[in-house]
Amino acid sequence: MLTCYLFHMYVGVRAGGGIGDELEDPAGDPYELYRIMFDITFFFFVILRDQQEQVKEDMETKCFICGIGNDYFDRTPHGFETHTLQEHNLANYLFFLMYLINKDDTEHTGQESYVWKMYQERCWDFFPTGDCFRKQYEDQLG
C-alpha cells in the first residue's frame, strides 16, 4: 500500500500531466486477440485428444456390447479377446441390423420384429448390457 502511495505521489507531482502520463495505452497488445483464439483452439484440441484416449482405453478394456471389463474375462487365457471376437463381436451385431434393414417387415420373425421395433425407436435395450453367456453359466453352476 505504501509503495502504491509513494508511486502516485512521486509520479503525480513530478509529471506535468499527472499520473496519466505514466499509464500505458489500455488497448494492449495487437496480437492479444490472436493469442486468445490460439489458446482456446489449443484447449479444445486437448479436450478432444483426452476424449479420444478415453474412448481408446474403454475399447481396449471393456466389451462394447455388454460393458463388462477385461478383468472379469482375463481369469482365463485370452478370455477378453475370445469374448470380444467370438461371443460379442460388434460386426455380428451390425450385420444383423443391416440384415433387418434390408429384410421386408412382413417377413420378420418374433425376435427380429422385437429388435427391429427397438432399433426404429433408437432404444438399445436389446443389447445384453452387463450380461454374457459366461456369466449366466457361472451363475447356474454356483
From TrEMBL:
Native source species: Dissostichus mawsoni
PANTHER family: B30.2/SPRY DOMAIN-CONTAINING PROTEIN, B30.2_SPRY DOMAIN-CONTAINING PROTEIN
Superkingdom to which the source organism belongs: Eukaryota
One MF annotation (Gene Ontology) recorded for this entry: ryanodine-sensitive calcium-release channel activity
Lineage: Eukaryota, Metazoa, Chordata, Craniata, Vertebrata
Stored InterPro entries: Ryanodine_IP3_receptor
GO-annotated biological processes: release of sequestered calcium ion into cytosol by sarcoplasmic reticulum; striated muscle contraction
GO cellular component, one term: smooth endoplasmic reticulum
Transmembrane feature ranges: none
Annotated protein name in UniProt: Uncharacterized protein
